[in-house]
Amino acid sequence: MKVLLVDDSKTMRNIQKGILTQLGYTDIEEACDGLDALSKVGAFQPDLLLVDWNMPNMDGLTFVKQFRAKGSKAPIIMVTTEAEKSRVVEAIKAGVNNYVVKPFTPDSLSQRIKETLDRTAAA
Amino acid sequence: MGAQDMDPSLLQDFLTESSELIEKLDVDLVTLESVAEGDEQKELLNSIFRALHTIKGAASFLGLTTLITFAHAAEDALNRMRKGEIEVTSEVMDVLLRSVDVLRSMLEEINASEEITPAPDDLLGQLHALVGNDAPAKPDTEKQTQAQPEVKLEEGQTKLELPPQKVDLLDFMVSDLEEVVGQLTQCIEQARVTATRQDAAQHLAELAENTYKTGYFFELDDMSKVAKALEAVADHLADVPDDVLGEVLVRVAAAQTLIKQQTEALCKSIALSWPLDTFLQRLEQVTTGNPLDKDVTGKHNNDAAQVLVLDGVLKAPVASSTEGSNESTTPADQARAAAKKGGDAPTARGSVGEQTIRVEVHRLESLLNLVGRLVLNKNRVLGMTRKVREHDLPYEVEEQFAAAASDLDQLTGELQLGVMRTRMQPLAKLFDRYPRVIRDIARMTDKKIDLEIAGKETEVDKSVLEVLADPLVHILRNSADHGVETPDIRTAAGKPETGTIRLTAEHQGSHVRVEIADNGKGLHREMLGKKAVERGLVTPEQLAMLSDEEVFRFIFAPGFSTAEKVSDLSGRGVGMDVVRTNIAKINGAINISSAKGKGTTIEILIPLTVAIMPAMMVGVGRHLYAIPLTSITEIVRPEQNMVYTVSGQPVMRLRDTVLPLLNMRRILQESGDEPKNKFAVMIAVGQQRAGLVVDRLIGQQEVVIKPLDDRYTQGGPFSGATIREDGDVSLILDVIQLIRQAQTPERAAA
Amino acid sequence: MSTTVDQDTIRVIIPKDHMTAELLIPADFPRDTLTEQTCLNLLQQSGVEITEQVTEAVKQMLATPPETGQEQQQVLATATPAQHGDHGYVQWLVSEPDQTKEPQTGQDGQKEKQKEDADNGEEVSHYDRSAYIVVKPGDVVGRVIEPTAGADGRDVLGKTIAAIPGRPIFIKNDETILRDGADQLIAQADGVLNRTPDSVAVCQLIEVPDYVDFSTGNIDFTGSVVVRKGVRDCFVVKATGSVEVRGLIEAATIECGGSLTAQGGMAGRERGFAKVGGNLTAKYLDNIQAEVRGDMEIWREVINCDLLIHGEIKSPQGTVIGGKTVITGPAEVAALGSGAFVATEIILGTVPHLEPIAQQLERLIEQLATKREKIEYEQKLMGKKKPSMMTNTDKERQTELMFEHQTASTKHNEGQAAHAAVIERIQQLRTVNLKINNKLFTGVTITVGKQSFVMNKDLKGPVRILVENREVVYCRDGALPTPLTTVAELKAAPAK
Fold first, then answer.
1. Is pLDDT above 60 for C99?
2. Using a CB-CB distance cutoff of 8 angstroms, which residues of chain B are in contact with residue C395?
3. In this structure, are C319 and C413 located in the same domain?
4. 3-state secondary structure of B197
5. Does the model's ipTM exceed the 0.85 cut?
6. Which residue of C has its CA nearest to B488?
7. Contacting residues of C for A81, CB less than 8 Å apart
8. Coil, helix or strand for A73?
9. Residue C323 has pLDDT above 80, yes or no
């Protein structure tokens, strides 16, 4: 299970990494913005992506669009803030599978990850 | 929880915010009366409702039950008004305005730390009357979001079980899907015209893709299937032969109907499923240009609903709309309300309450750090003034430079003081923990102990506070555990049964003095002495020469414990060692006095701040060292006839006293030319004094202390390092350690 | 001179060993008649092997005539002597022990630098010198150098001079030393290197024939040590195996992974230390500070010692007088204390190696709880910010706090589980069962848990001190247990 974390904040990535590790996922790659992530998905082939919305260079939404345009079906969980919530609709239309609002508890992120993977497995 | 035991800063914030909201409520309510029914009124009602709700929410966080109950009743009434169930009349407004008054007085009571007076019953009655007696008390809006409203499910309907974060979005999605449905109509029209068919195809593709992804996200599998089929239609639309085009488009319209149905059902969190096989298969067939049987095409009259019935998707003519969707009962609506609530918090801050702002500690730290660096640079500038004087510059230039430097000096000083003040915190932060500590020990040891605290408002630097925390606990534990006797012993000794420990703090010049005094059994000189000899800290001969205080001081030696047995409470003598090292770390001093049977008093003197301090720079050998100015009593030039040796220890007679002298060259292992005339810097820590013999005096300077790791000083007498005005590093001499070295005969150093 | 042609004529001179061939041309010899070929012929007739060098030398000789009236004598051929072979030997690759008894600088990496005496702090420690070469598996201790055959020589007449080949060395090695393909001798075991002229082995036992003193230096050995006599003041014997000392151990330090047998007793004068991984058996202990992981057996007495015994005391004949004895398991002694009321403290049923761990865990749990509280406090502060007022950083921080909170909670729970396990183990290990065969004297302090009993009466043995129904009692065979408080004063405040 390969997970790609896309977030410009190192802290957030570390937290996500910690939570993923607790869930038993250790094959983790990090990217600091959309561009970085795009350059990594080819070689890494993630099975799950956690994508922050607001990032320099290329934001999460743009990344998701481009990633999906490549035909990749890997589930994406969007990390947003309350303010961006109204725009989640856009993200959904771009092909996001789930989302989590900052601030989130470790449990809620774990829950989202499980949820998303269960759904992907069922589909 | 009463208002009294609450975090005062939280309470303060609550009061500030609530007062603002109450002001706004007043204004809004008055305006409400004057506006006509319509959007503006609705907007106002919403705003009033939200304000009240915010107060209630914050109050529930603080556990202000009385206030919550009342706010709740008022909120219910408002909620009904908001929904148009109650008309805005002046009677209603009277009740509401009075409610605001009651709320305001409640807030005032909280502010005055008084018990909250419950709302008058008649007002509550009026509010309840507004809501209607039969109306059950409505639960909080938040709770409702999670509550599953009872919806009767029909065939083909399943309860949509989504995680809450997805439910939150339903609202957005419904409006989005409604738009899709609308656009599909447009799309179908465009597709009928050959010229715009290409555009229609593209448009349809987008809509279908969006709908597919939405369906996938909300786990609406059948709608996704329909959307997928539409995608296929979009792919072929341009190539569809004219004879089947109508057939295709009626099915697109049918798909649109399905999406519309699902959209409506979505409001009620219902997922629809249909027997889609025939429909999809036929749709695919016509899309790829293969006409259907006349049997099928002839019957639907180009009616989408009819197509669906024929294809077995829907059973009977569909009741076009699921009526009676009460605005406030669908989750989507609540989500909508919740979403709006998030964005409307008032931003203006009134002048009510305490004038404070909260600043993160690290910002202060970095500010202090900057000031520290500023001080260093100021020192460099001051250093340059000295240099400037040495060069032949025009007098005016030199004067101007000196004046600017002196201004800088003064301003920096004030800035430094100001910043340091921001770091000051009352000792109460520590002292308030101790009654509990003492109580626990008293309970465990079956003693009766009173802890008297005075001066806890005394402010010290945050870092001092941190360093002081452990030592004070140790000393207090020690006093309680070893100092104060058990009630029977105390009674036998003719003392009151209850022992007293007094913890006092006060400012004394540039120091803070903390005193811990108990009226217990006091320290036992003979016992301590014996132990010290056993531990090899002192020889019996030396012991005889020591003053009481010097003997008592052994309790701070590492590993020295007078407790005959190891007790849970005061350990193996590590504790008091911690006291000594921690206090030394912040350039503090400890004094002990004790009278047998009467009690022990431990006095701790600590500088007000530990980050920046004035120091005297001295030269020893080839290096410069800093001596904290607060420890220096005077500086003399020892004359030959003043210096002599007592039992191998060089001493100096200064007026009426004889003080030990420390040859800093030897202690610091400095070499180089030895000047003829040296200086003796007299230092004092508490009662103890000594003279440090140094080669040169450089001058007074503010130094910024950089703590040193022990392993770099290799046990040398250093408490830290500082960067000098010329950019070089100097070590700061640890006065306490040096004094101790002067008191104990120099064995190792010799 | 072997070959003389004529007194006045040209001569070839070859010594008996055939190592050189010279040509002598008399002073009056008509040089113009002398050709190179004549000379060569002459040499050849004398048996000299004509080589290029010889021809060249002749040319050279003729080309440089001496001054008139001088005879010319020159070496025209030299033999190549035989190179005799070298004997095989072992090239030792270890640092040689100090044989000269001279102080040796502390640079020797194999020995620990240890300053025993502060007076010569900067100088060399005589205690540090070692007579032993300690090796560990994989150490290359030496290399066997094969003999060489040598190279034959060739005399001027062209005859071979035979070289004498070197003799190989025969060195025996057992399984503790591997001789690899490259003739390296590699230690296969921990121990001390034992060498004789024809054997090498790693010995896992050091047998000190005399005292451990300046002749041996301190011993730090991976294996066992037997000392036939005693251990002198201030020396240190460390061994991973057992240590057996037949004589007296003075104020020395003994550390061993296995058992320590001190047949001659230990007289520490307050500077004797022992750390024993196994059992400690001694004739007596006097002023010793010791920690014993196993059991302790004392034949005579323990005087003023500070002992920590993780196992049992099995000294039916031994007496403990003075000092402090901490013991985890049961104990049997002949007598405890003395008629002279010497303060003797015995602490029963503590588990010294686990109790600090339990305390440490308690501290850790407390710290984690504090950390959690801190986080909760910060969360509380954050929590009252309105969501709309929160910056992105706040949200991040909040997420971080939640994460930290969870992490701290998890660790906290783990800590509590570990703590419970340790406490359980402590309960399993601790035993209060002190048997005194002869007498328990007044003045002895017996500590059990938080209670200390100071004996104010002598108690005749055989008697046992036990805990029954949470009460410390003494009990004689066949008799009912009696509370210890009837013969002792309960000193500490009773624990809850």
1. no
2. none
3. no
4. helix
5. no
6. C493
7. 392, 395
8. coil
9. yes
A95 vs B726, higher pLDDT: A95
Is the Cβ pair B61, C384 closer than 8 Å? yes
From residue C192, how far is each of B102, B565, C144, C186, C219 by CA, in Å? Answer: 93, 45, 19, 13, 11
Domain that holds residue C422: 355-429
Report, in angstroms and rounded to the nearest whole number, the Rg of chain B calculated over CA atoms.
Answer: 42
Domain map of chain A by residue range?
2-122
Nearest CA distance, C405 vs chain A (angstrom): 9
**Rounded to the nearest 10 degrees, how much is the dihedral formed by the CA atoms of C67, C68, C70, C75?**
60
B442 versus C290: the higher-pLDDT residue is C290
C242: pLDDT strictly greater than 90? yes
Q: Are residues C318 and C435 in the same domain?
A: yes
C395, C402, C407: residue with CB nearest A81: C395
Tally C-beta pairs within 8 A across A and C. Answer: 39
Looking at residue B338, its pLDDT comes to 42
The Cα C429–Cα B347 span in angstroms is: 65
Using a CB–CB cutoff of 8 Å, tell me whether B169 touches chain A: yes
Do A85 and B169 count as a contact with CB atoms less than 8 A apart? yes
Chains that touch B (3 or more CB pairs under 8 A): A, C
In a mutational test of the A interface, the residue from C388, C403, C406 whose CB has the highest number of chain A CBs within 10 Å is C403
Helix, strand, coil percent content, chain B, rounded in steps of 5: 55, 15, 30
**A-proximal residues of B, 198-217, CB under 8 Å:** 209-210, 213-214, 216-217
* pLDDT (0 to 100) of residue C255: 94
**Residue B486 DSSP code:** P
Question: What is the block-wise mean pLDDT of chain B (750 residues), using blocks of 10 residues?
Answer: 53 74 76 74 77 71 72 77 75 79 82 77 79 46 40 70 75 81 85 82 86 84 86 83 81 87 82 83 81 71 78 62 40 44 38 55 78 81 78 79 84 80 78 77 82 84 77 82 86 87 80 86 84 81 82 76 46 60 76 86 76 81 86 84 79 82 86 81 81 88 69 68 76 81 54
The per-residue pLDDT for C116 is 41
Q: What is the mean pLDDT of residues C255-265?
A: 92
Residue predicted with more confidence, B714 or C341: C341
Options 3.30.565.10, 1.10.10.10, 1.10.1740.10, 3.40.710.10; CATH of B426-607: 3.30.565.10
C109 in any annotated domain: no
What are the structure tokens assigned to C386, written together? 């309105």
State the architecture of A2-122 in CATH terms: 3-Layer(aba) Sandwich (3.40)
Query: A 39-58 residues with CB below 8 A of B?
Result: none
For residue B714, the model assigns a pLDDT of 60
* Together in a domain, C465 and C440: yes
Q: Which residues in chain A are contacts of B165 at CB distance < 8 A?
A: 98-101, 108, 112
Number of structural domains found in chain C: 4
pLDDT band with cut points at 50, 70 and 90 for residue C257: very high
Mean of the pLDDT values across residues C109-134?
A: 53
- Please determine, looking at this structure, whether the domain spanning B612-743 carries the CATH number 2.40.50.180: yes
Taking CA–CA distances from C494, the nearest residue in chain B reads: B445
Indicate if C147 and C180 belong to the same structural domain. Answer: yes
Smallest Cβ–Cβ distance between A102 and the set C388, C399, C406 belongs to C399
**C406 at A interface, C-beta within 8 A:** yes
Please give, rounded to a whole number of angstroms, the shortest distance from the CA of B55 to a CA of chain C. Answer: 12
Nearest CA to C319 out of C299, C342, C301, C298 is that of C301
Are residues C328 and C456 part of one domain? yes
**Final residue in a domain of this structure, among C406, C429, C452:** C429
Nearest C-alpha of chain A: how many angstroms from C408? Answer: 12
Q: Does A21 touch chain C (CB under 8 A)?
A: no
- B3-143 belongs to which homologous superfamily? HPT domain (1.20.120.160)
